[in-house]
Amino acid sequence: MGDNPYQIAYRFTWLDIDGMEVNTAASTWIPMTVVPGDTVRLHAISPNPRCKDFILSIRENDAARRF
Questions:
Q1: What is the pTM of this model?
Q2: Which helix (DSSP H) or strand (DSSP E) does residue 47 occupy?
Q3: E-strand stretches of the chain
C-alpha cells in the first residue's frame, strides 16, 4: 500500500425493484482523493422513487495521472 494518497473515482448505479438499471444523470464517476488509513464515506441520494437498490463501483482514477 504506502503512504501516498490514492486517486479514485466512484459511482452509484441505481436499480429498480426488479434489479434493472435505472438510467439517471446521477450515475457518473465522481473523483476523490483517499489517504491510506483514513475513513471515507461515500454519499448519494436516490434520484427518483423507482430506485430501490444500488451498486457501488470504485476504480483507480487513471485520468488524474494524465495531467
A1: 0.80
A2: none
A3: 6-15, 30-34, 53-60
**Which residue from 11, 20, 19 is spatially nearest to 56, judged by alpha carbons?**
11
CATH number of 6-66: 2.60.40.3230
Domain ranges of the chain: 6-66
Looking at residue 57, what DSSP letter applies? E
pLDDT average per 10 residues of sequence, the chain (67 residues): 87 96 87 94 92 95 62
Are the beta carbons of 54 and 12 closer than 8 angstroms?
yes
The tally of CA atoms less than 13 A away on the side-chain side of residue 33 is 6
All three cell numbers of 55: 451498486
